[in-house]
């Protein structure tokens, strides 16, 4: 039996990784291959029976996994960020959540015959969308930038809000189902433990991080261990209060001033990917296929209410007073796929409610999975054509992500921004990011290949990557990561390879893309020129002032960088680039070229003066 459990755990790990890879490769939410894998192993082939395999350990495994997922989600709930992302996002995660919750709860009560308490719990469970399903869909659909930002931030912010709402409803049901307790008193005690203990422990952990009371190598493991201990301790103080406690603890940490939780979020996200993947396969394997079929037309009618009534009503109500057009609202009304958080939390609550003998608890999981399957499959297949029909597709992405926020990168970004080109600077160096923010440039602080970046680095409108950093070890990783994401020919790097050390020889595939601004241009050369007073200048190349005239004026030391033509951004990669009339040329003008241009201007003035009578 021990060998069987060990083998199955190993198989779960391998299959989880494969499903995540398959979702990435096919540009689909990973939830789809994970779901199919679980259904195939469980109801399909009867290879995996989680209840029989893990026995009494199954509930603790799911319980601890959900606690980590909720804590990680709560760490992203920064109240300031909600305000920073516009009125529509704020409305969707507040007013929209209440509208969606109410609509689904009412429909569930009348269509499925659930008691009001269970109907309200189900409504709370399926209000969440989540970045794990939204972001892969946006990469495929490519709506215009404003709509992509709204959907992306709605998915990130609503995850912990929806989970917190579901936890609160569950706490009420759990208390009300206990015949020995006074409902209001017991609920008040449970909320007191959850909110009070969560706030206190969140503050204490924040102080520990802020004052560096844990060494750096223990910070992530320490916070995880403390969180699990708090979860168990809260449940000992008051049964079923642990999930609320860790959610509140995460929210407190996310909103404490001076507490750097970026590393913790990245670590938790890596752990959560593994937990979510394994949990979802286990949960899908537990599904009773007959229970899914028994949902009948009522289940399909409820799915229709979720997609065709609750979501449009929420979007159109929240859109009042915003600048969104009618077609924008119709697109947002269609895209709201449900995610893995709903599946994980619903499965945990269903097990708990079944032990309490609550009627209808056995139908929660099949119904949640029906909503997940319906929204993800239908919307993944139709969102692209729907966006094109409405005219809200972004088309070809002309924006640039620049890795490395040095002086050169910042000056180039300012010129590009003045030409209405979308540009974002990413860097690990806080001083560079601070200076870029002072220039009012969009930035991302951190490693652009991290899991945190996949959720928080806004790539809306970004079609190419320029690697212009001094980090020789990180540059290849960033390049390969975005070659997979954007395409091989959409990634460019500076030729920083000195070729002196055999240890640092790089692959031909990578070297082929080190052609940014020409093979002779390196980071060191650009930094040196900028320190000596070089300027980045935009020049119109016309029939009256050709590229030959440009080179005559500034000489061979001028470095053409990028040119804009008919709304398209073109990266210059060497002398072979043909620069014709009708373009806006952005170039680096060294101090020598500036002096040459000044001498020419003075000579022209002198000639003009000599011709005067």
TrEMBL record:
Gene3D superfamilies, from UniProt? 1.20.1530.20, NAD(P)-binding Rossmann-like Domain (3.40.50.720)
Q: Please report the record's description of how this protein sits within the membrane.
A: Multi-pass membrane protein
Q: What is its main location?
A: membrane
Cited SUPFAM superfamilies: NAD(P)-binding Rossmann-fold domains (SSF51735)
**Localization (cell):** Cell membrane
Give the UniProt keywords, A-Z. Answer: Antiport, Cell membrane, Ion transport, Membrane, Transmembrane, Transmembrane helix, Transport
Lyase as a keyword? no
Cite the Pfam families for this sequence: Na_H_Exchanger
Keyword Membrane recorded:
yes
Q: Where is the Cation/H+ exchanger transmembrane domain?
A: 14-388
The transmembrane residues are 6-24, 31-48, 54-77, 89-112, 118-138, 150-174, 186-209, 221-237, 271-287, 299-319, 331-351, 363-382
InterPro entries per UniProt: Cation/H_exchanger_TM, Na+/solute_symporter_sf, NAD(P)-bd_dom_sf
Quote the PANTHER family the UniProt record gives.
NA(+)/H(+) ANTIPORTER 1 (PTHR32507), NA(+)_H(+) ANTIPORTER 2-RELATED (PTHR32507:SF0)
Q: What is this protein called?
A: Sodium:proton antiporter
Question: What is the species of this protein?
Answer: Shewanella eurypsychrophilus
